[in-house]
């Protein structure tokens, strides 16, 4: 099937008590690792591209790699999504350039400006058969160009007004997840504000909610990175059981990026440590790609619950 929007995926996920994984893609091995896992697990998938990914790999390369994945994985729905588009122009560029979904992130802007541009993006996107995710509240942490010191939790009191005024199709909210591999301080108990999620879903019935910054930073991966020469002390993520819980309700899309980065880095570091004479990139990118596939398979089955839902 050709690239799809997330409309059908979210409808099924909302009523099916699971979430669809949104994984960031930056190169061929990542695209292949993710989509091979999804094809094997019969899972719908959202491949997402950040502004940083476009700067790194170039829009055309990314589009063509995702198109190749669509051909290679004919049994699963694949959406191509812009992650954290921070302007109308960037969103328009991706809509014109073949994306099936875009995020307009105006969460750092004053509310009225966020509303105004999100509506412009939604109007333009809908006229082109593309769907829009927006964000209210702000996540802490760093990811590519997106950076904030502290959480500002989503205020459930404004979500209805925002969705009505803008016409967006899904909403990312801040309930304590955060970008990057250092989500909590050592000794700090990981917590998510499920009360906010509950209140938002009560005010927006049947409306798909998105969680960003939802890597779990598996400690065996961190240990492997550190064992083979890395330096990632105190990397901590969101416990997987909390995400599984969120996926049962209104959360239809869960963004996972850091765990894939971590899996690749651990695999490459291990390979270099055990095979110091290797210099053919295929020798270490092959285990890296396999590590992406294994990580994604685990997320589909044990966290998102979207295996078998394609
Ligand atoms: Zn994000």
Which SSEs are present, and which pair or pack?
Blueprint (H helix, E strand, L loop, with lengths): L6 H10 L3 E5 L3 H14 L3 E6 H7 L1 H14 L5 E8 L2 H9 L4 E4 L6 H17 L3 E6 L3 E4 L2 E3 L10 H8 L3 E4 L4 E2 L14 H10 L5 E3 L7 H9 L12 H9 L2 E6 L1 H17 L6 H24 L6
Helix pairs in contact: 2-4, 2-12, 3-4, 5-6, 9-11, 11-12
The site of zinc ion (ZN) has 7 residues, from loops.
Structural features:
single chain; 310 residues; alpha/beta; 8-stranded parallel barrel; 3-stranded mixed β-sheet; globular; binds zinc ion
Number of helices: 12
Overall geometry comes to globular
**Uncertain stretches of 5 or more adjacent residues:** none
Strand order of the largest sheet: 1-2-3-4-5-8-10-11
Structural class per helix/strand content?
Answer: alpha/beta
β-strand percent reads 15-25%
Rounded to the nearest angstrom, the radius of gyration is: 18 Å
Q: Give the % helix.
A: 40-55%
Largest sheet: 8 strands, parallel, barrel
Q: What small molecules does the structure contain?
A: zinc ion
Mean pLDDT: 96
Number of strands: 11
Gap between N and C termini? 11 Å
SSE order? HEHEHHEHEHEEEHEEHEHHEHH
């Amino acid at each position: 099937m050709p690239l799809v929007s997330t409309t059908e995926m979210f409808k099924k996920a909302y009523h099916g008590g699971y979430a669809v994984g949104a994984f960031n893609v930056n190169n061929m091995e990542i695209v292949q690792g993710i989509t091979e896992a999804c094809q094997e697990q019969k899972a719908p998938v959202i491949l997402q591209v950040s502004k940083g990914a476009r700067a790194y790999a170039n829009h055309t390369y990314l589009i063509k790699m995702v198109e190749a994945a669509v051909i290679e994985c004919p049994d699963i729905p694949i959406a191509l999504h812009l992650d954290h588009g921070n302007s109308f122009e960037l969103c328009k560029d991706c809509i014109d350039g073949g994306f099936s979904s875009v995020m307009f992130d105006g969460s750092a802007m004053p509310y009225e400006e966020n509303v105004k541009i999100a509506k412009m993006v939604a109007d333009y996107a809908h006229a082109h058969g593309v769907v829009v995710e927006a964000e209210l509240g702000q996540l802490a942490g760093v990811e590519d160009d997106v950076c904030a010191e502290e959480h500002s939790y989503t205020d459930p009191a404004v979500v209805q007004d925002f969705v009505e005024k803008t016409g967006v199709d899904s909403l990312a909210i801040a309930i304590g997840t955060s970008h990057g591999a250092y989500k909590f301080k050592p000794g700090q108990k990981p917590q998510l504000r499920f009360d906010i999620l509950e209140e938002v879903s009560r005010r927006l019935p049947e409306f798909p909610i998105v969680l960003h910054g939802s890597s779990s930073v598996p400690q065996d991966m961190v240990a492997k990175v550190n064992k083979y020469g890395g330096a990632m002390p105190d990397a901590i993520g969101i416990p997987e059981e909390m995400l599984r819980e969120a996926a049962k309700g209104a959360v239809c899309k869960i963004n996972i990026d850091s765990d894939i980065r971590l899996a690749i880095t651990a695999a490459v570091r291990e390979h270099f440590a055990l095979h110091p004479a290797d210099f053919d990139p295929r020798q270490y990118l092959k285990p890296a790609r396999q590590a992406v596939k294994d990580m994604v398979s685990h997320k589909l089955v044990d966290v998102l619950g979207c295996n078998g839902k394609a």
